[in-house]
Amino acid sequence: xxxxxxxxxxxxxKVAEMVKLYGEEGLxxxxxxxxxxIGYFTAESGNLNQVVFMWGFDSxxxxxxxxxxxxxxxxxxxxxxxxxxxxVSQENRILKPTAFSPIR
Length: 104
Hints:
four-stranded antiparallel sheet; Alpha-Beta Plaits
């Protein structure tokens, strides 16, 4: 298993709008396509105006195939048009759990 972590930095004051939009539209779409939903978080300290979410996949190939299918969905494309104006930057990480991690 691998975990994809995404950190989106938003324009100041846009976190609540992003959380609402993701909960209502983005998450249901992603749940239809992606692997295991691990969580969605907001930053309370450090770099503010950020949301962080994590998804689990069987492998990099699994992740690529699932994201490719989702990218072709017109509903996903319409959702992206709504959230892109809220974003300042995006950071992605692929994490590999250790043998003793509770998430494997």
